[in-house]
Write a structure and sequence with these properties.
The protein is built from 3 helices and 15 strands. It is an alpha+beta fold. A hairpin with a 2-residue loop joins strand 10 and strand 11. Bound molecules: calcium ion (2 copies). One calcium ion binds next to loops.
Length: 246
């Protein structure tokens, strides 16, 4: 009886040991994620005839285990920085509040377009690249502001994207996993001309408070026209080649 219990206990311990070694970041896979703005300048025309271009803000690449590190659909913004990300394109506060959090393994800010010397949004034709490390079981959440909105952001489903499938690193185009969300923090105006939107607001965090919940933008005013993410953005992921696999 005792020895049977002991063997069960040993099995449990070995199980934990296996998990711990899978978590050892020296065995981690490096992934490069590329986020490209595939729109053209002046691609959009507002109801008043104004032509406008779409840009995407700096954002975060979060590697996590926690099921919903940034937001929960149908719930109010948690007040941990998603608002500044979604309204002002500023991921700094969200990065700070997530770092070291439960289930969060790493938080990486991307803010400098490829070829640029200083942080800024990605305008039509430009791209960000960000590198992360992960082990099987890890998930990825990206957050990026839709620059011509009051509080819209691109991210996958709240649980993020599984970075491994059957133990194998994912690779290729993951744009179809990106969704446009409304953070529920600022009342929507018509994209491209709203006076309280990122490019035109007098100061960060300017605009009428919405007191709403995080929703798929397809379900909010003005949102339906912008929910086909693959028509404006291309997101790809490339795991680094394993040594000797050349
Ligand atoms: Ca809103
Ligand atoms: Ca605003």
């Amino acid at each position: 009886m005792f020895s049977k219990l002991l063997s069960v206990a040993t099995g449990v311990l070995l199980g934990f040991a296996a998990v711990a070694s899978a978590d050892d970041m020296s065995h981690a896979t490096k992934f490069t994620i590329r986020i490209e703005n595939i729109t053209k300048p002046d691609a959009f025309t507002a109801s008043n005839g104004t032509k406008w271009s779409l840009a995407f803000s700096p954002g975060l690449a979060i590697v996590h285990k926690d099921k919903a590190p940034v937001f929960s659909v149908g719930k109010k913004d948690r007040g941990q920085g998603l608002e500044a990300q979604a309204e002002d394109g500023d991921p700094g506060m969200l990065a700070k509040s997530l770092e070291g959090g439960k289930g969060v393994k790493s938080v990486t800010v991307f803010n400098t377009p490829i070829g640029a010397k200083a942080p800024g949004p990605i305008t039509p034709g430009s791209a960000y690249e960000v590198t992360i490390s992960a082990v099987p079981g890890d998930r990825l959440t990206l957050t990026i502001m839709m620059g011509q909105s009051n509080d819209w952001f691109y991210a996958p489903v709240e649980a993020g994207i599984a970075l491994f499938k059957d133990g194998k690193a994912i690779s290729g185009d993951i744009t179809s996993q990106m969704i446009l969300w409304d953070a529920g923090t600022e009342v929507n105006q018509e994209p491209g001309i709203g006076p309280d939107q990122g490019p035109r607001q007098k100061a960060p965090n300017t605009g009428e408070a919405e007191n709403g919940v995080v929703k798929n933008a397809k379900d909010v005013q003005y949102g339906a026209a912008y929910t086909k993410v693959s028509s404006v953005m291309k997101v790809t992921i490339a795991p680094a080649m394993m040594p000797g696999a050349m």
